[in-house]
Specification:
Chain B: This is N-acetyltransferase domain-containing protein. The complex is a heterodimer of chains A (235) and B (174). By secondary structure, chain A is an alpha+beta fold. Chain A is built from 6 helices and 8 strands; from the N terminus they run ααββααβββαβαββ. Chain A has a 6-stranded mixed sheet, sandwiched between helices. In chain A, a hairpin with a 5-residue loop joins strand 1 and strand 2. In chain A, helix 1 packs antiparallel against helix 2. Chain A starts with 13 loop residues before the first helix and ends with a strand. Chain B has one domain: Aminopeptidase. Chain B is built from 5 helices and 7 strands, in the order αβααβββαβαββ. A 5-stranded mixed sheet of chain B has the order 1-2-3-4-5. The chains are: A alpha+beta (235), B alpha+beta (174).
């Protein structure tokens, strides 16, 4: 069985490993529904019950007094993991540390059909952003030790004054990976990270077609009649 | 399908200011009326600024946090009243320095409203942003001041784009 990534389970006793597994599984099942998660949850459920049956070990789940929102969002973690029958493991990794290659980003922007922007400006924009979140697809081939393919498949960034306001810009997901809830997960993690950093006012500007997408994440258009305005916009 | 946050990348703006004088009130005029234009936070008394914010209806914010916000603000402009040495108008803009910027905290002390100070601050802030090459200048306007921003060149919901704010209470349960 492949080990759950994101947990350092080296050098822990067996019981501790199982407790960690159980906690991780519990969190997984209570997280927002993503198709990939459901598959994984079933997989882990079967493993867990197998462990219980074979070893008669009592899994003591820690009392769930903390709400999910209070757990700090790690800077990098695995969002989805799929194991293929041939042994290849695919992971989609979320990171908020700004690890985005500007050439890959430009290729991604091309893929979604955005107008080209100068590379140097893209790089500067990333550097000047308070948070750059990214989704990377990592493919680990079974027989190639340590060899893995890493591809940028999503990005979102936020500018901020580090104290009161943050504005989310440039949310994009590779069209080949859309429809899986990745964009939602990415933005949700960003929000949570921003709130944990005590930035209370999180804003964005949404094309009319995606207003509903953001409403489902907790954004409100024109709250109390407050209007987004742009200076001499060119359509 | 996803939010872009940019309307257009390359734009030469229409000329919004009269050609004889760049601004509706020149720097000289302002000075002769007893006001000094400032572009840095040095000499800006944050407690005085906070009072101006509170007087126009902003929540009272921690001055240390205000300091942090101003230190991470790309452009700001304020008007100092010479006689009292107090800030009477203010505006700032945050952003990524190349594509987008948002203007926040536009205030004019109630005793000094209606004489063009807000406009003076906005015109200069916009020009500073344009000079940096920033084409996308946005802000969030309360309904009662839409009429202040429109003559300055701001358009609300262009092409159906909506300003949205995250609300912890508003989250839709699926």
């Amino acid at each position: 069985m492949s080990t759950p990534i994101g947990l350092t389970i080296k050098d822990k006793t067996r019981n501790q490993k199982i407790c960690l597994l159980a906690t991780w599984l519990r969190r997984l099942l209570s997280t927002r529904k993503i198709k990939g998660f459901r598959l994984m949850a079933n997989f882990w459920e079967s493993i867990r019950s197998g462990i219980l049956k074979n070893n008669a070990i009592q899994i003591v789940e820690p009392a769930s007094t903390l709400q999910e929102e209070e757990d700090p969002v790690p800077e990098e973690f695995v969002l989805v993991e799929k194991s293929h029958p041939d042994g290849e493991v695919q992971q989609i990794i979320f990171s908020s540390g700004g690890d985005v290659d500007v050439y890959e980003l430009q290729a991604l922007c091309d893929k979604v059909g955005w107008p080209r922007r100068p590379l140097s400006k893209l790089a500067t924009a990333l550097q000047n952003s308070y948070m750059v979140a990214a989704l990377h697809l990592v493919r680990k081939l079974p027989d190639q030790e340590g060899n893995e393919e890493k591809k940028l498949i999503g990005m979102a960034r936020a500018t901020s004054d580090h104290a009161f306001n943050a504005t989310i810009w440039d949310v994009l997901v590779d069209p080949s990976y859309q429809g899986q809830g990745l964009g939602k997960a990415m933005v949700e993690k960003m929000i949570r990270t921003l709130l944990q950093r005590d930035i209370g006012n999180i804003t964005l500007f949404a094309d009319s077609k995606v207003v509903e997408f953001y409403q489902n994440l907790g954004f409100e258009p024109d709250p109390e009649g407050i209007k987004g305005m742009f200076w001499y916009p060119r359509y | 399908m996803l939010s872009r946050g940019i309307i257009s990348n390359f734009r030469t703006p229409a000329i919004p200011f009269p050609t004889t004088c760049k601004y509706s009130i020149s720097d000289k005029d302002l000075e002769s009326r007893g006001f000094i234009l400032r572009r840095t936070i040095s000499d800006l008394n944050l407690d005085h600024l906070n009072s101006v914010f509170v007087a126009v209806g902003f929540p009272r914010r921690d001055p240390e946090k205000i300091k942090l916000a101003l230190e991470h603000t790309q452009s700001l402009l304020w008007v100092e009243h010479k006689r009292s040495q107090k800030p009477v108008a203010f505006a700032r803009a945050t952003g990524d320095g190349v594509f987008n910027s948002i203007i926040w905290d536009v205030v004019v002390d109630a005793s000094f409203q209606g004489i063009g100070l807000g406009k003076a601050v906005m015109e200069r802030l916009i020009e500073e942003l344009l000079e940096k090459g920033i084409c996308n200048i946005a802000l969030y306007s309360e309904p009662r001041v839409l009429g202040f921003y429109r003559p300055l060149g701001f358009v609300s919901d262009p092409d159906g784009i909506r300003g949205m704010v995250y609300s912890r209470k508003q989250k839709k349960k699926k």
